Protein: Cochaperone prefoldin complex subunit
Amino acid sequence: MSSGSDSKKLGEQELRIAANQFSNELKAVASKIGELELQLDEHNLVIKTMSPMAEDRKCFRLINGVLVERTVKEVLPALKTNQEGIASTIEQLTLQYKAKDKEFSDFRTKHHIRIASST
Structure:
């Protein structure tokens, strides 16, 4: 049989688990945003470098681990499309992060949870 204090401890443990889960989800989304921002920076640099080049100039592109020869005219539109897709995904993930952060904040307020700083 469990006493009343056991159920209170279980509640605290469940709250701790839920808070850790929120925190881990936020960290995962933030990490993915950071990764995508690096990819976006790389795309921006390559596009900036290739834009003034002649369209018939040879260039090489890594596709699924295979280096293929193409022209600037073929590669530049694909890079711009990828760039737009990455930017859009970053926007969506940022909105998702903000929503999850608000949800976590509301959860902490509702359950009177304070997060101790790790510094």
Remarks:
- The chain is about 70% helix and 10% strand.
- Helices lie at 4-50, 72-110.
- The longest strand covers residues 58-63.
